[in-house]
Structure formats: C-alpha cells, structure tokens
Write a structure and sequence with these properties.
Elements (H helix, E strand, L loop, with lengths): L4 E7 L6 H14 L4 E7 L3 H5 L6 H14 L7 E5 L5 H10 L4 H5 L2 H9 L8 H4 L1 H10 L5 E4 L4 H17 L8 E4 L27 H9 L20 H9 L2 H13 L4 H28 L1 H30 L3
C-alpha cells in the first residue's frame, strides 16, 4: 500500500538539544511507521543567518545526522538525507522565485521578527528574504502531502500552499498543496528557567556527556521561595518541575509536587529523580551515537543511500516541472 509522504528537516545551525528531541525528533520517530517519511539536514538554510561564519556547519551537520539516528530514526523505515546534495532543491527554488510575488515573502511572520532578534547580523540579503521560498521548494520537490508542525507554524506553511496553487494555475497541476500535520510541541525549559535555546546558552545537548547533563540539571533553579530545606514551595514556579512534567511518570510528578508543597522533599532529591528520568531518555541516544562516532562509514553509507533515494524522487518532480513549463 502506498503511504502518504511526510517531509521535515532541521537547520544545521548548532547542536541538537532536549527541546529538539521532545519537540520534533520523538514525533518523527512515531511517524515513520505510518507515513513515507523524508527527513533532511537543511544545511543550506544554515547559511541564511550564519553565512558570515561557516566554521561549524560541517560539525553541526554531522551532529544532526548522528542524533537523528540516535533518537530512533531508522533508515529502513524512513529516508534521511542532506539538502545540499540534492541540487534539485536549488533548481526548483530558482524556478519558483520567478513566479513568487515579493509581498508574499515580506509578510512571512518571522521575516521582521528574526531581523529584530538578530540585530548584530546583516540580514538584508535575498537569501534571508527568500528563506521561505527555499523552504517551500524543500517541501514541493517531494510532493509531500504532510509537514509536521506546531499550531504556531501553520502560517509559515501557508506560503508553500500558495506557491503550489500559483504554479498549478500558471502551468499544470504538479504539486499537491501540503497540509499541516498538527503536532503538540511541549515547551521545554532550559537550565535558567527560560525556553531551552542555543541562543540563550541554557540547553542540555544530546551530545553532552552524562556528567555534563547531571551537572546542568543539578544547578537548575527551583522555586526561589525554597531557600532552606524546610521551606515550603510551589512546584508550578519551579523550572525543574516543568521538566518533570515531560520526563517523569505521573506518580513521580505527584510525589515531587506534594513534596515541594509540604517541604517533604528537598530540591536535591527532586533533581535526582529528574536526572534519573532524563538519563533513561538519553542513554539509548548516547549508545547509538557512540557507535556511529566510532564507525563513521556506517553514517556516511546511510546518508549516501538516503540522498540517492531523495534525488530520484526530486529528479522525477523536476522532470514534470520542466515539462509543464516548456523547458528542455
């Protein structure tokens, strides 16, 4: 039976952390049994904001690939590949740029938001403005039916749907309009109490050692009202408890919440339970990652095969596109 195709990728702009694992990778793993899944490292996208310093892009790409596999993506059940090695992405991006109104790109929500957020970088480039168009090409080149996103990302997907409609209207019905596969992405708190993010330097990375993870969790802030062991607290004010909601069982959540409110449990003991549960999640990733680090040829073989499969699908799409547009 033919399965509907799903497409998603991650930008090569740094190491993956627990937020990426909970927010995307764990969902990708679940989807690979139900859909024909294509997952890629978006290394070209890493250039849109980081073009001035590319010293870490190769390492970031390798880190993503290793952790894709460490988290449970199976090359026998999904296709894993590199964006920059499938040149058809760039060709489709070029052709779509000829028909995409400038106003569509300028009104994408993150266009001005990112410029405000990254004021220290010169983002007055076509590459940055055209980021959503390259993203659309990434999706449309595989004629994907679904793209897994959170509810806040649906507006970003809409431009891909508009571009597909415009192409189909101007030339020929080639592209399905990609639909959002809505997924609940829980907010993962960083060690300083803010949302976990590379830019905040508050992340627990999948490539961190057990010792590094334990140290980061031990130094996390808890309820500021609990200065002494005997002080009662409010678990809802504790960033540590927010992580318990994701990584600990219901019984453990109730135990630490009650212990916090009554001072029946100390913050150190609360963190020990969290550390144990975070380790349960990360240990299989560490094991698989170490295998790949020690056997890089296995990683390269997986990526080569996935990229070759992706190129075949992308090549067929471009054949249809060129034919529809009257190009040789």
């Amino acid at each position: 039976m033919n399965k509907d195709r799903v497409l998603s990728g991650m930008q090569a702009s740094g190491k993956l952390h627990l937020g990426n694992l909970v927010g995307a990778l764990q969902n990708w793993v679940k989807l690979q049994d139900k859909y024909d899944c294509y997952y890629f490292v978006a290394d070209w996208h890493g250039l849109t904001t980081g073009y001035a310093d590319l010293s870490s892009i190769k390492e970031s790409t390798k880190d993503l690939l290793i952790n894709f596999l460490g988290a449970g993506l199976d090359p026998e059940r999904c296709t894993i590949f590199l964006q920059s090695r499938v040149l058809e992405h760039a060709e489709l991006h070029l052709l779509l740029s000829m028909i995409t109104p400038l106003g569509w790109l300028e009104r994408v929500p993150t266009y001005k938001e990112k410029q405000e957020e990254l004021k220290d970088r010169d983002l007055s480039t076509y590459g940055f403005l055209g980021y959503p168009l390259l993203q659309s090409a990434d999706i449309l080149i595989y004629r994907a039916k679904y793209v897994p996103v959170g509810i806040d990302q649906v507006p970003h997907l809409e431009i891909s749907r508009e571009i597909a409609r415009r192409f189909n209207y101007l030339y020929k019905e080639i592209f399905p309009e990609p639909e959002a596969l809505l997924t609940e992405f829980p907010k993962v708190i960083g060690v300083d109490g803010r949302k976990m993010s590379k830019s905040y330097d508050n992340a627990i990375y999948l490539s961190d050692s057990p010792g590094e993870v334990e140290e980061k969790l031990k130094t996390m802030v808890t309820d500021p009202a609990r200065i002494k062991r005997t002080d009662k607290g409010n678990p809802d004010l504790s960033p540590v408890y927010q992580l318990h909601k994701i990584f600990s069982s219901k019984d453990e959540q109730e135990e630490v919440a009650e212990g916090c409110r009554t001072a029946g449990i100390g913050c150190i003991d609360c963190k020990k339970i969290l550390i144990k549960n975070v380790f349960k999640v990360m240990e299989p990733i560490w094991v698989k990652s170490n295998e790949l680090i020690n056997n890089p040829n296995v990683l390269y073989s997986i990526v080569d095969k996935g990229t070759e499969k992706a190129k075949k699908v992308a090549g067929e799409t471009m054949r249809l596109v060129r034919e529809a547009m009257g190009l040789y």
